[in-house]
Design brief:
Elements: H1 3-6, H2 10-16, H3 20-44, H4 52-72, H5 76-88, H6 98-115, H7 119-142, E1 144-152, H8 155-168, E2 172-180, E3 184-193, H9 199-205, E4 210-217, E5 222-223
Antiparallel strand pairs: 1-3, 1-4, 2-3, 4-5
Helix pairs in contact: 3-4, 3-6, 3-7, 4-6, 6-7
Length: 224
Amino acid sequence: MTFNDVFKSSFVDKVSGFSAIDSIIALGAAFLVGLFIYMVYKKTFMGVMYSRPFNVSLVALTMLTTFVILAVTSNVVLSLGMVGALSIVRFRTAIKDPMDLVFLFWAIASGIVLGAGLIPLAIFASIVMGLILVFFANKTVLDTPYILMINCNDENSEEVVNKKIKSTFSKYQVKSKSVIPDRGIELVFEVRMKNGETKFVNELSQIQGVTNSVLVSYNGDYAA
């Protein structure tokens, strides 16, 4: 092989065939879509603790997937090598919230579509996804389920508590009732709240014979 043969290699041809304009457009669109995912995640988050680094990683994941697909679609051999390389990687981070998994797949899918050059499809699908998630997030906030735990000394206080629950909530359900000798009665209700007002917990605590009242949401937030 001579010195001139080096510059006639296919590697130089690939470099010369690289389109900077297409890549900039695709990565720019990936950043905008990732930023939209970022805002939707922040708007619809209902977990215990919001993680900004995870949310930022959704933007980065969208852009990373986009430039990987840009490289893969340019060469079949490269695509096979990329599949083999990615099959070696093992991710150990546990995803506790199913909604976090939805956002991860959304970011990856958007990157794949953008890398394939289908920018209008990625933008349209992301807008639809965002509207659906925001709609269901707001719907959940309007009618949020909570677990209400109350400890009573006797049956009289239990009866008063039941009347108070019935008059306060239009939707409630008795989940369990435990009678413990020398410790009283423990009641567990599932209640539905629309406005997030927790003043009734204080009113329950003031009932004669009630020793403890705890309100716990399914997301881990509580008031006592």
